[in-house]
Design a protein that fits this description.
Blueprint: E1 9-18, E2 21-22, H1 24-32, E3 39-40, E4 53-54, H2 68-72, H3 76-92, E5 104-109, H4 115-128, H5 137-140, H6 145-154, E6 160-161, H7 169-182, E7 188-195, H8 200-209, E8 236-244, H9 245-250, E9 257-270, H10 279-292, E10 299-303, H11 310-324, E11 332-334, H12 347-361, E12 363-364, E13 380-381, E14 387-388, E15 393-399, E16 402-412
Parallel strand pairs: 5-6, 5-7, 10-11, 10-15, 11-13
Antiparallel strand pairs: 1-2, 1-8, 1-9, 3-4, 7-8, 9-16, 12-14, 15-16
């Protein structure tokens, strides 16, 4: 079915919990200035860990968003989600009590689950005995806990999903919401991703898998750089209020952008970092562009995955060359998440919010830390300072372990 014959889908509200800013205002102020949120980890000792820096949210006060009883029954990932949802609903000026509950739902991605909650309960079991374990352990660690708790808190009775697809989960959430609203399964969806994966256990697992940079240099997340040695993990949440266009227009909502295309493919690459081959990633880009009826001349910039592993970076550059050909020389690309670290299921949602604010302010956010750009990639990478934009579309890409590729196209206004 062609895009023009379906219901149009727009974004009307944004909520952010990020290492470089709580709330969309603080987040954008830091992001457009290239101000990083990667710093030495504060919440637990790191002396014996191979990685001692991360994109940590260290100015978050849970009591500002969740009452004590519920906070004790839920994981940090859910606290982040609630904070971002609260801001997004306020930003959208959406009063859920005035909506039909069966036409409103939630699509909130998560990959690692409430691992911190589970680890605390395991410690309680082995140090204080079975009675010390919380009964809420049975649900607090599940990836679906975020959608479940959101549905309970806001009385949502409509379309609800929890995408779990490694690092592309956040873009998958937007893609699922886009499809659901376009076909009439919902009118409003609370959409995005959240992740709270920073703990010694997870950091050890990630570094042993070889996906992360190691050490204590806050600037070592360097995608497309000659010194690239892996990503730096992060935590946070990004939430968008996604609506059917006429629904948003009738209530006088501010429209940030329209979702116009979504492509998803898989490399069948196995449980390995994203491939050095870009064939199927390119196909996902082409699918999103075809659905959105856009060409390279419409694109303000492409927001990249930026895995910062030489083989994966090579594959992403190859996908871009295959998709755009000689136009790639002039097409701006950027990896704004170099300021945040890679927040897994929250990454695609935060990239999308970055793009929405970039379109609003007519600025392409920069990639930082990439002082020695590898010339063989042939990328027009926006580095260090924001650059003016003049086109109305942003293409957002993500790649995950196992070969997942997801690409979303958004167009300014509606």
């Amino acid at each position: 079915m062609a895009h023009h014959s379906r219901r149009r889908v727009v974004i009307t509200g944004l909520g952010v919990v990020a290492p470089n800013g709580l709330g969309k205002g603080a987040f954008w102020h830091a992001t457009q200035a290239g101000r990083p949120g990667i710093r030495p980890i504060q919440r637990f000792p790191t002396d014996n860990l191979p990685l001692r820096v991360a994109g940590e949210v260290n100015d978050f006060a849970v009591e500002d968003f969740v009452d004590r009883k519920l906070a004790n029954r839920t994981d940090r990932m859910t606290h982040f989600a609630f904070a971002a949802i609260q801001e997004a609903l306020s930003d959208a000026r959406l009063v859920l009590a005035q909506e039909h509950p069966q036409r409103v739902g939630a699509v909130i991605a998560n990959t690692q689950g409430g691992i911190e909650y589970a680890l605390h309960q395991i410690v309680a079991l082995h140090t204080r005995g079975p009675r010390a374990m919380s009964v809420y352990t049975a649900i607090a660690w599940l990836q679906v806990a975020n959608v479940g708790q959101t549905s309970i808190r806001f009385g949502l009775q409509g379309y609800c999903k929890t995408p779990v697809n490694d690092a592309v989960s956040g873009l998958d959430a937007l893609g699922l919401a886009f499809r659901a609203i376009a076909r009439g399964a919902a009118d409003v969806l609370i959409t995005g991703g959240c992740e709270a994966l920073l703990n010694p256990y997870t950091l050890l697992v990630w570094t042993k898998r070889g996906h992360c940079a190691v050490g204590d240099d806050p600037r070592m997340y360097r995608p497309f750089d000659r010194r690239a040695a892996g990503l730096v993990p992060a935590e946070g949440a990004g939430i968008c209020i996604v609506e059917e266009y006429e629904h948003a227009r009738q209530r006088g909502a501010h429209i940030y952008a329209e979702l116009i295309g979504y492509g998803q493919t898989n490399d069948a690459h196995g449980l390995l970092p994203p491939s050095s081959q870009g064939k199927y990633y390119s196909r996902a880009m082409c699918l999103a562009m075809q659905e959105g009826s856009i060409t390279s001349k419409d694109i303000a910039y492409v927001s990249l995955d930026g895995r910062a592993l030489p083989s994966s970076d090579r594959g992403e550059a190859e996908a871009l060359r295959s998709t755009f050909g000689t136009d790639l020389e002039q097409l701006p690309v950027s990896v704004p998440r170099t300021m945040l670290g890679h927040s897994h299921a929250a990454a695609g949602a935060l990239d999308t919010i970055t793009a929405l604010l970039a379109l609003q302010h007519n600025l392409i956010p920069p990639t930082i830390n990439c002082e020695e750009l590898e010339p063989s990639y042939g990328l027009n990478l926006v580095r260090d300072e924001a650059r003016p934009l003049s086109q109305p579309v942003v293409l957002l890409g993500g790649r995950g372990v196992g070969g997942a590729n997801a690409v979303m196209a958004i167009r300014k206004g509606a």
